[in-house]
Amino acid sequence: MEITPKYSIILPTYEERENLPICIWLIEKYMKEVPYEIIVVDDASPDGTLEVAKLIQKEYGENKIVLRPRAGRLGLGTAYVHGLSHARGEFIILMDADLSHHPKFITEMIALQNKYKVSVVTKEKQIRV
């Protein structure tokens, strides 16, 4: 039975062949008790990032790792928009596969979201909506 994810993690990639497996492993480490999906939006990385993502998808499954590649390098902002158009989760988590957003903070942010019943949580502030 397929479980609808509560969280959709949008993970844009460009030349992240080495970081992607680490990033996804860390997300799984910190999120294994939470229903989530990771939407990988690769912008035609010349280093083979998409091929690595396909191997990871085979390991975790197509419902957990969703691949939504694009034809070229179109930018981070539009990668998030593209990922949003495929998200099934009730809540969205925006990250970057370069590990500038460490996955260990996700559960803290989810705890703040639940504690304060907010729609938006950032690393710096909480915004009540």
UniProtKB/TrEMBL annotation:
GO molecular function terms noted in the UniProt entry: dolichyl-phosphate beta-D-mannosyltransferase activity
**Residue ranges annotated for the Glycosyltransferase 2-like domain, each copy included:** 8-121
Q: Can you cite a GO biological process for this protein?
A: protein O-linked glycosylation via mannose
GO cellular component terms, semicolon-separated: endoplasmic reticulum membrane
InterPro entries, sorted: DPM1-like, Glyco_trans_2-like, Nucleotide-diphossugar_trans
Q: Does the keyword Transferase apply?
A: yes
Give the EC number(s) listed in the UniProt record.
Answer: 2.4.1.83
The record's annotation in Pfam families points to: Glycos_transf_2
Question: Per its UniProt record, what SUPFAM superfamilies does this chain match?
Answer: Nucleotide-diphospho-sugar transferases (SSF53448)
This protein's record includes keyword Transferase = yes
**What keywords appear on the UniProt entry?**
Glycosyltransferase, Transferase
PANTHER family in the cross-refs: DOLICHOL-PHOSPHATE MANNOSYLTRANSFERASE SUBUNIT 1
Please report which protein family the annotation says this sequence is part of: Belongs to the glycosyltransferase 2 family.
Q: What is this protein called?
A: Dolichol-phosphate mannosyltransferase subunit 1
